[in-house]
Amino acid sequence: MTTSFPNCTTITDLLNVLIKDHSELQWNLRCCFSDGEANTIMEIAFYEGPYRRVKGKVTFYANTGVTINLRYRGYHPKDPHHIVDTLLDLVNFEKYQLASA
Predict the structure, then answer these.
(1) Nearest-angstrom CA–CA distance, 99 and 101
(2) What pTM did the predictor assign?
(3) Among 42, 34, 43, which residue's Cα sits nearest to residue 72?
C-alpha cells in the first residue's frame, strides 16, 4: 500500500520543534478512529501548564495526512491543510507569539 502520509518521525520532530521553546507546552498523539480498512483518524492534543490545560487539538487522516479539524488557542486557520503544513503554521504562530510577548 502506498501513502502520501509522512512517517511518524517527521510528525514527532515537528511537534518537538513546536514545544522546544515552551517549557509548559506538551503534546499527545493518539488514534481516535480506525475502521480496519485504512481509514484512521489521529488526534494531536496540546496541553500547557502544570494542570495540563488544553491549548489545542488537531485531527487528521493518518493515511493521507489531510487535516480535518484544527482548534488552537489564538490561532485561526484559513482552511485545512496537510498535517505537516498545519504543524509548520503552528510553529510559526508560536514563534510570533513569543516574539511579541
Answers:
(1) 6
(2) 0.87
(3) 43
